[in-house]
Design brief:
By secondary structure, the chain is mainly α. Helix content is 79%, strand content 0%. It has 8 helices and no strands.
């Protein structure tokens, strides 16, 4: 596929994914207000993006976006004339972080609950953050920071490429800088450091789900 076609396809798939990223990020921010609001928003959004056709379209869009990025990066490494800006380098670096962290995120909060018929609600995420704080705060922190940065810079780049319109870089920078502390506060809320009203039943469901998964792998769950 020609470079111009790859760039155009990457731009369109990136814009499509940014819609999902925005909705997902907004859902996380709801945790700053209450666990109930987080759950209500989460279940309402899942009615849309957990539809089989939507999930297939989402995964196909993501796979296409990653493929285009990999092809473009591969061709750039073999080129002696291609140069990129610092903003593009940052966007690509954040994309690589996303590729590394999204798999574990999907496994923990999508595949694992689906395997054992559990809903990954507020209390489910709270359990993971309290049980393995270093791993999951790092995972979700990197995922959120890289996701926001990659999405904002990607939209800026896509709009410029597709419609020859330049978004103000300063506005994009401010958007990123303002979003990061908001996400940090939301993660703190998910981990129980903002308010203390948590549904106890959900914690038992999450613990049971993890025990079943570990048991199927032959892992001792005595400490869980």
């Amino acid at each position: 596929m020609e470079k111009t076609s790859l760039l155009r396809l990457q731009a369109w798939t990136g814009l499509g994914l940014s819609v999902f990223t925005t909705a997902h990020t907004a859902n996380i921010v709801m945790a700053s207000f209450s666990d109930a609001l987080f759950n209500e928003t989460l279940f309402a959004l899942r009615e849309i993006y957990h539809q089989p056709i939507v999930e297939v379209a989402l995964m196909g869009t993501l796979a296409t976006h990653v493929y285009c990025g990999w092809q473009l990066e591969s061709s750039r490494k073999h080129s002696t004339t291609d140069t990129v800006s610092l903003r593009t380098e940052l966007q690509r670096f954040c994309g690589q972080i996303l590729a590394a962290t999204t798999t574990l995120h999907v496994l923990s909060f999508r595949v694992l609950p689906a395997m054992y018929g559990s809903k990954a609600d507020f209390s489910f995420i709270f359990y993971f953050l309290r049980r393995w704080p270093v791993m999951y705060y790092s995972l979700l922190g990197l995922l959120g920071a890289a996701g926001v940065t990659h999405a904002v810079l990607g939209v800026e780049k896509s709009v410029r490429y597709l419609w020859s319109r330049r978004l103000d870089p300063a506005v994009c920078n401010i958007t990123i800088v303002m979003a990061l502390p908001v996400l940090a506060h939301s993660l703190a809320a998910l981990g129980g450091h903002v308010y203390t009203a948590f549904p106890g039943v959900g914690l038992l469901v999450a613990r049971s789900c993890v025990k079943k998964f570990c048991g199927s792998l032959g892992i001792d769950t005595g400490l869980l």
